[in-house]
Write a structure and sequence with these properties.
The chain has a single domain (2-310), classed as Metallo-beta-lactamase, Chain A, CATH 3.60.15.10. It starts with a strand and ends with a strand. The chain is an alpha/beta fold and 312 residues long. Strand 3 (23-27), helix 1 and strand 4 (49-55) form a beta-alpha-beta unit. It is built from 8 helices and 15 strands. It has helices at 37-44, 66-76, 91-97, 101-120, 151-158, 198-207, 232-236, 260-268; strands at residues 2-6, 15-19, 23-27, 49-55, 79-85, 123-128, 136-137, 143-148, 180-184, 188-192, 215-220, 245-248, 272-275, 291-294, 306-310. Helix 2 (66-76) runs parallel beside helix 4.
Length: 312
């Protein structure tokens, strides 16, 4: 049994993937008002080993919870097989992209901690992940394939650094290097898109059109349902059945996420839209072969975790 949980962390991402008895991996982790839902989950389940921690891209709503997780793992002697990230970490990058001091400080502390635990042997492997990275094996029948970022996204990102005047008048967006993963068995796949941009979706799902012969049973709407990251044709061309769920991680924000246009267009294609903000959930019927577990019993509840589980 494979379980995928979208933790409610407000406006941000935290996805927990679980398998077998205690197999666990986490993509992104954001703290919420001082709480750390991912860490609470690790403690509650008495996890003794973590397969992977993946940082999809360095926006603060995706990484502020990792430091606490690493601190806990160090104290509890919990081994981490892989800590992966998508963006080169250097001073020039931090100064040009992550301008707020607090953001730079949190991220710098995170990578100092990762290096420390790597040196101490608690982290087995750390480094950049991209579409050339080897698959991450979960079980004999299920693995994670890395679909993005590729060299194409990296070239676009680093154009900013190679301008003749080097003035960096426009900051490159970390979303260009956002992680896109496919959890796959022989029959199905789950697409997790983090904050992937339109050009990335066009590349992996339209131009190259590889790794998409399997039935998609679950997807993640990129960038919390932003219209700027929406590419209808990508979702239209997927191999899916009517009623397939698409999850949106979203909380209170000033950006208009999720976009009504995004929801309407995805709904018109036949998807069921689920959200960690149930006010925009149009359906919680996930079909016969996919079990959606969502705590919506309390009529007054405004936020929830989305949990999906399915057989290998």
């Amino acid at each position: 049994m494979i379980k995928v949980t979208f933790k409610y962390v407000g406006q941000g991402d935290c996805i927990i993937i679980e398998w077998d008895e205690k197999g666990i991996g986490i993509i992104d982790s954001r703290k919420l008002d001082g709480d750390n839902p991912a860490l609470d989950h690790i403690i509650d389940r008495k996890i003794k080993k973590i397969k992977f921690l993946l940082l999809s891209h360095p926006h603060r709503d995706h990484y502020t919870g990792f430091n606490d997780i690493l601190d806990y793992c160090e104290k509890a002697n919990i081994g981490i097989e892989l800590f992966g990230y998508t963006t080169d970490i250097n001073r020039k990058y931090l100064e040009s992209v992550l301008m707020p001091y607090e953001d730079k400080n949190i991220l710098a502390n995170l990578f100092r901690k990762v290096a420390k635990l790597d040196k101490e042997g608690l982290i087995n492997k750390r480094g950049l992940i991209n579409d050339l990275t080897s698959n991450i094996k979960l079980t004999d029948n299920v693995f994670i394939r890395i679909l993005a970022p590729s060299q194409e996204e990296k070239d676009e990102f680093y154009k900013t650094f190679f301008k003749d005047d080097l003035s960096l008048k426009k900051q490159p967006s970390p979303n260009l290097l956002s992680l896109v993963t496919s959890i796959e068995s022989n029959e199905w796949q789950i697409l997790l898109t983090a904050d992937a941009v339109k050009s990335c979706l066009k590349r992996i799902g339209i131009k190259e059109l590889k790794n998409f012969d399997k039935s998609m049973v679950l997807g993640q709407v990129p960038h919390h349902g932003s219209i700027e990251n929406h590419y209808k044709e990508f979702w239209k061309r997927r191999n899916f059945e009517t009623g397939t769920p698409l999850a949106i991680s979203v909380g209170p924000n000033k950006h208009g996420h999720p976009s009504e246009t995004v929801i309407e267009e995805l709904d018109s294609l036949g998807y069921d839209i689920h959200s960690t903000n149930p006010s925009i959930v149009t359906s919680i019927d996930a079909g016969s072969d996919l079990d959606l577990i969502s705590d919506l019993n309390n009529a007054d509840i405004r936020t929830t975790d989305l949990e999906y589980q399915f057989a290998e």
